Amino acid sequence: MAAIHAAAFPPAEAWDARAITELLAMPGCFATTDAQGFLLARVAADEAEVLTLAVHPVARRRGIARGLLTHGIVSVIKLGARTMWLEVAASNGPALALYQGFGFAESGRRRAYYASGEDALVLRLNIS
User: Fold this and answer.
1) How far is the C-alpha of 21 from the C-alpha of 35, rounded, in Å?
2) Do the strands 120-126 and 83-89 form a parallel or antiparallel pair, or are they unpaired?
3) Can you tell me the distance from the alpha carbon of 116 to that of 12, in angstroms, rounded to the nearest whole number?
4) What is the pLDDT of residues 38-83, one digit of tens each?
5) Which domains does the chain have, with CATH numbers?
6) How far apart are the C-alpha atoms of 82 and 59, rounded to whole Å?
7) Which of the residues 13, 47, 49, 87 is marked catalytic?
8) 99 is catalytic
9) Which listed residue (99, 106, 114, 118) is catalytic?
């Protein structure tokens, strides 16, 4: 997963194996995986958060992210979540299109959130 994350994100934002292992050890955290991508999410009470969704660049535009997100949403529903949150770079058009296609809507903006200085959009999906 760390290798995929490193390929999918800028170096300053890539998570190493230790970070991923530590996240997976947290209560309510789980991974949905594919040979070319993965989704890390966590559920607390009736809320879920997509911690990261990464697809190796050579495998993009093949529906992998859509499948991972679908499985993630089904999983958090089974765990009792009624709302799902995530953050995405404001300029990441393909990711925004994916999330909006699932019904995620912008609920906030985190200015200069990323190491590059770019804003993050906070998106919310009501799944109740």
Assistant:
1) 18
2) antiparallel
3) 8
4) 999 999 999 999 999 999 999 999 999 999 999 999 999 999 999 9
5) 2-126 (3.40.630.30)
6) 31
7) 87
8) yes
9) 99
